[in-house]
Design goal:
26% of the residues lie in helices and 22% in strands. The protein is α/β, with parallel strands linked by helices and 329 residues long. The protein is globular, with a radius of gyration of 19 Å.
Length: 329
Amino acid sequence: MNGEREGVAVSRREAILAAAAGMGLSGAVLAGSGAAVPARAAAGRERVLRLAHMTDIHLQPERRADEGFTAALRHAQSLKDPPQVIVTGGDLIMDCFAADEARTRTQWDLWKRVLRAECSLPLEHCIGNHDIWGWNQKKSGTSGSEPLHGHKWAMEMLGLGSRYRAVDRAGWRMIVLDSTFRVGDSYTARLDEEQFDWLSRTLADTPRATPVVVVSHIPILSASAYFDGDNEKDGDWKVPGAWMHIDARRIKDLFARHANVRLCLSGHIHLVDRVDYLGVTYLCNGAVSGAWWKGSNQECDAGYCVVDLYDDGSFEHAYVTYGWQGVPD
């Protein structure tokens, strides 16, 4: 039995490395799942888009985070087969949810400086909970009436007209969601009714032949959410609503009515996993910052995910680490 398991492990590792080599990533260090190619993929398929999903950057003046983010951007853009677009997955700055105006401005100014100096690729942005200014009014000292309160500051910095939207690229429709629902001075992960209605209409209006990739900051479904803390310490598994979408049931029911929804990308947990459910693949894609620039978070090194999208609606993916060690306590 042990020998059989070892053989399976070796085969899986070889398959991951072979898939990564096929994606032109043979020189990178890989972690987590390797490639995902649905059985329906045709032999003559053509790749139409390569993207780098960079989530949980948590940019801050401390811990050389600007150097780390710079290293990640340079790494992605210098791949032998580089991405054509970078999709940011939220939590772009360390935190302004509970920060005052001065601290928030410092972080966003640093964000602008690094991108201006280091990024030559087009960007698609998703907003994370730490990018929303002042919802914890006690700690941030905000009143809620500030012109840039809430999502507005992030939307201005990122050039967004809406906190959620649909973008068509290379024959795919990318739907970007806002996962963060305010509850007092905190939040839970769910779509407000206005956004869910919009999502339902958008999917209904999307041609059946157009494959869909969904981007959310907080995972809709995730295996690694169970390991983000001692969730089982009282004898039962408990995943807080702030760690995984509390409305996942109705979202998966909606997706089940639209077979062209193929892939969901998320972050938030700073771990890597893949969940396949009802024909949809859910990828939780680690963190550019690792453990908030302190090093690795559990088994997850600082990294980003390279995703290849194909004309037949199939895809491949690989989590790529870029060698950043972090600044430990």
